[in-house]
Write a structure and sequence with these properties.
Length: 503
């Protein structure tokens, strides 16, 4: 039987796989398809993707999801796109052929160049003031500069107007529209180190600093707006593309964090924390990033503060693969609950240094408080508690920078299934932690933005569509909460600077 409803189609183009999810107009997932693609490592510290494989894998999942749902393209009202954010693609405007593999956000090949840029007087401060970012290989701008410097003949082609430079959303939009549209949204543009947070357009000073010609960059639009329509040959009929946002901003929207002070945390290998700061960009004094969260056509942009915990789920993976004291991540919940506390043990998982608010690349993983009574259960519990403590560190910096008070934390990601972690997170924050029924919040955010952009849903579009799975209320008293957190801070103090040379 063929279904007759109308649906929202979301493309969720990630770092290791492409996914498509079909949602009904109430934001309920109907069908999901996913396809991994090749990771390319030309040399240590370099990470690339084949742009053609990205596009083809994304299309394959779109067709699979329609087949799975038993609907044709005529049932799809709109298409929303969310994507790995800082990954850069450069291609020929006329042929659509990439001139090089995509350079992935994880890639560190421009580290030395970024270090030189940071060393110039006043440049780092100017970059932060204009873009809200720090000078780092993570962002797209330095990747574009590297390609212009290293791909033979590229600068000449750019000067002749024959080149497009863009993030993955722009690459998808260009191909989906048959090469008619070269565009991006404000959230993705704000991750390039070329974008002015206040004017909401490419910044002439940043373009000059990085040597990027404006003519090759995409048009910047609100996240919920009409970007174009898919070429008829792709799905048999044109589908409007009306919602685009970077993955973490899309998750913030999908979590219905639509008011200033609302925040979400995605528990993955690390943690991505974003707090809505309203219609003003908040400059951070704690090393957090200021970013555009989204913009709805005809309305002011909404901004966010963003902070990352480097090691979260990766610490649990280390227990499994490094220490081999567990066989699966799921074991940690029962192990943590099998003991009353950690027995005074703290694990600071600075396996790759510490990010905000410490910003210490020399910090190293540290386990303190071990006695003869310490067991693997204590270590498992200390590992989960460490994820919650690190989240508090970042959220405390966000509240201090923004002057906003956190009332509730909305959570998603793989580790959000762990009830022990979420209960302890509520305890250590002293606020409610909320897990939604739909944990595919990134794709949901893209779908809802598309619904808003097409006028199918009312702005902010998703408030009534947030469905609670479970809320975790704080159970610890304030005195005990602060005592435990002071212990964490003492443990962090011992981890900081550990890898520095003597003296």
């Amino acid at each position: 039987m063929v279904r007759s409803e109308r649906f929202l189609l979301a493309f969720d183009q990630g770092t290791t796989s492409s996914r498509s999810i079909l949602f009904d107009l109430e934001g309920r997932p109907v069908a999901v398809a996913q396809q991994p693609f090749t990771q390319i490592y030309p040399q240590p510290g370099w990470v690339e993707h084949d742009p053609v494989e990205i596009y083809e894998s994304q299309l394959a999942t779109a067709r699979a999801v329609l087949q799975q749902a038993g609907v044709g393209a005529e049932a799809v009202a709109v298409l929303g796109i969310t994507n790995q954010r800082e990954t850069l693609v450069v291609w020929e405007r006329e042929t659509g052929r990439p001139v090089h593999n995509a350079i992935v956000w994880q890639d560190r090949r421009t580290a030395a160049w970024c270090e030189e840029l940071r060393a110039r007087d006043g440049v780092a401060e100017r970059v932060r003031e204009v873009t809200g970012l720090v000078i780092d290989p993570y962002f797209s701008g330095s990747k574009a500069r590297w390609l212009l410097d290293h791909v033979p003949g590229l600068r000449e082609k750019v000067a002749a107007g024959g080149i497009c430079i863009g993030t993955v959303d722009s690459w998808l939009i260009f191909n989906l529209t048959g090469g008619r549209v070269h565009a991006t949204d404000v959230s993705n543009a704000s991750r390039t180190m070329l974008f002015n947070l206040k004017t909401l357009d490419w910044d002439e000073d940043m373009l000059e600093l990085l040597g990027i010609p404006a003519a090759c960059l995409p048009r910047v639009q609100p996240s919920a707006s009409h970007f174009g329509e898919t070429d008829t040959a792709i799905f048999g009929r044109p589908i409007p593309i009306t919602g685009v946002a970077g993955d973490q901003q899309a998750a913030l929207f999908g979590q219905a964090c639509v008011r200033p002070g609302m925040a979400k945390n995605t528990y993955g290998t690390g943690c991505f924390l974003l707090m809505n700061t309203g219609e003003r960009p908040v400059s951070s004094r704690s090393g957090l990033l200021t970013t555009v969260a989204w913009q709805i056509a005809g309305q002011p942009a909404v901004y966010a503060l963003e902070g990352s915990v480097f090691i979260a789920g990766a610490a649990v993976q280390w227990l499994r693969d490094g220490l081999r004291i567990i066989e699966s991540s799921a074991e940690t919940e029962a192990l943590a609950n099998s003991v009353a506390d950690t027995g005074g043990v703290y694990f600071v998982p600075a396996l790759a240094g510490l990010g905000a608010p410490y910003w210490d690349p020399y910090a190293r993983g540290t386990i303190v408080g071990i006695t003869r009574g310490t067991t693997r259960a204590h270590l498992a519990r200390a590992t989960l508690e460490a994820i919650a403590y690190q989240t508090r560190d970042v959220l405390a910096a966000m509240q201090e920078d923004s002057g906003l008070t956190l009332r509730e934390l909305r959570v998603d990601g793989g580790a959000a299934v762990n009830d022990f972690l979420l209960q302890f997170q509520a305890d250590v924050l002293g606020v409610r932690v909320v897990r939604p029924q739909v944990t595919e919040t990134t794709a949901l955010g893209a779908a809802l933005l598309a619904g808003v952009g097409a006028g199918l849903l009312s702005p902010p579009g998703q408030g009534s569509r947030f469905r609670l799975d479970r809320a975790f209320e704080p159970e610890l008293g304030e005195e005990e909460r602060e005592r435990l957190y002071r212990g964490w801070q003492r443990a962090v103090a011992r981890a900081l600077g550990w890898a520095r040379a003597d003296g």
